[in-house]
Amino acid sequence: MFSLLEKSRAPGARANTALQPGDPLPLLPPLPRLRGPGALQRWRERGIQWALFFAAASSIAITLGIVGVLGFESLSFFRQIPLLDFLTDTQWTPLFDDAHYGILPLVAGTATVAAVALLLALPVGTITAIYLSEYAPPRVRETVKPFLELLTAVPTVVYGYFALLFVTPILRTFIPSLSGFNMLSAGLVIGVMIIPYVSSLSEDAMRAVPMNLREASYAMGATRFQTSLRVVFPAALSGVASAYVLGFSRAIGETMVVAIAAGMQPNLTLNPLQPAATITAYIVQVSLGDLPHGSLGYQTIFAAGLTLMLMTLVFNIGGHILRQRFREKY
Predict the structure, then answer these.
(1) Which residues, in sequence order, are CB contacts of 160 under 8 Å at separation 6+?
(2) Left (φ > 0), alpha (ψ -120 to 50) or beta: where does 263 sit?
(3) How far is Cα 111 from Cα 36, in angstroms, rounded to an integer?
(4) What values do phi and psi take at 263, rounded to 5?
(5) pLDDT tens for each residue of 148-188
(6) What is the pLDDT of residues 190-245, one digit of tens each?
(7) In this structure, what DSSP letter does residue 228 have?
(8) Which long-range contacts (CB under 8 A, 24 or more apart) does 1-9 make?
(9) Which residues pair with residue 263 across a beta bridge?
(10) What is the pLDDT of residue 147?
(11) Are 328 and 239 in contact (CB under 8 A)?
């Protein structure tokens, strides 16, 4: 008995021969064998895979190295200075004959400058992001956003002298008792510096909100302003929180602006009208090379750096918890 394939090839056979009961299944020609990638391509893919792995592992190794150096040098410092004195003493004079090693004045200065910066950057950056995401025409958005992000390219030294020579004299016209070096002008300029971080990341998060949420809000009679504040902003809260965390980390890590405009005087005060020193400004002051390597005064920069890293870590963990709690999946 011929197979169906053979019947289709027989002279005079019909093109659509039906398969009769008892006939064997048609024989299909074997599929062509696919050739796999060559040896050179496989080695190339494997090399790219290992390169990406080492690039990812290097960031972890660098982070562990930084933590290790800070921890090792700080351990040498805390062998001579009790941890309780470091956390509770209200004076920071490690370079004086009557040395005190209380970190509270530096923490207070860092927190005050960061608070002033965030009070300016968070509202302005959020409002800018809402405008660019919900109100601005595409041409305006494509023009304003690059110019706004250009603020991040200005050197921080320029910002420092801008705060000292321009912002401070303007503030003294309204506050005559304002000191020439103060945390207010430094904090305001740092706030201007971090506005692009907050606005750009927040705008990206708001633009990622699905359009059907906006359309549903409009269908229920909400205005654009109500939709922006009650629908888009809560839906993008996890991304906005990431922008806030980045802005805070940038504010407490700023060095040159506070070193130039804030005065580098370790005073335990939360008054932004007074001069003060921050942790980063003190690290710059000691790192100029005047102190011998391995001395107690030199090791204070590692203890201060460890404190700054822990402050940033705590805030980042809080931001991560906030993002996980309010994260929306679409």
Answers:
(1) 186, 189, 256, 257, 258, 259, 260, 261
(2) left
(3) 60
(4) 105, -20
(5) 888 888 899 999 999 999 999 999 999 988 888 999 999 99
(6) 999 999 999 999 999 999 888 998 999 999 989 999 999 999 998 888 889 889 99
(7) I
(8) 3/27
(9) 276
(10) 86
(11) no
Contacts of 99 (CB under 8 A, 6+ apart): 93, 296, 297
| Per-residue pLDDT reduced to its tens digit, 290-317 | 777 778 888 899 999 999 999 988 888 8
Q: How far is CA 236 from CA 32, 145, 216, 218, 227, in A?
A: 51, 19, 16, 18, 12
Give the count of beta carbons closer than 10 Å to the beta carbon of residue 256.
Answer: 18
Q: Fill in the amino acid letter for 234.
A: P
**Euclidean distance between CA atoms 140 and 147, whole angstroms:** 11
DSSP one-letter code for 98: S
Reference 302, options 133, 118, 75; nearest CA is 75
Residue position matching structure tokens 């590692």: 302
Predicted structure pTM score: 0.80
> If we measure between CA atoms, which residue out of 164, 167, 155, 157 comes closest to residue 120?
167
DSSP 120-187: HHHHHHHHHHHIIIIIS-HHHHHHHHHHHHGGGGS-HHHHHHHIIIIIHHHHHHH-TT--SS-HHHHH
Whole-number Å distance between alpha carbons of 75 and 303: 8
Nearest to 114 by CA among 250, 237, 288, 289: 250
Q: Are 8 and 17 in contact (CB under 8 A)?
A: yes
- The superfamily (CATH) of domain 87-326 is MetI-like (1.10.3720.10)
Q: Domain-by-domain residue ranges, the chain?
A: 40-79, 87-326
Dig out the tokens for 100 from the structure: 């005190």
**C-alpha closest to that of 149 among 191, 199, 204:** 199
Distance of alpha carbon 74 from the chain centroid: 26
Q: What does the alpha-carbon distance between residue 6 and residue 17 come to, in Å, rounded to a whole number? A: 11
Amino acid in the structure at residue 146 = P
Q: Which amino acid is at 113?
A: V
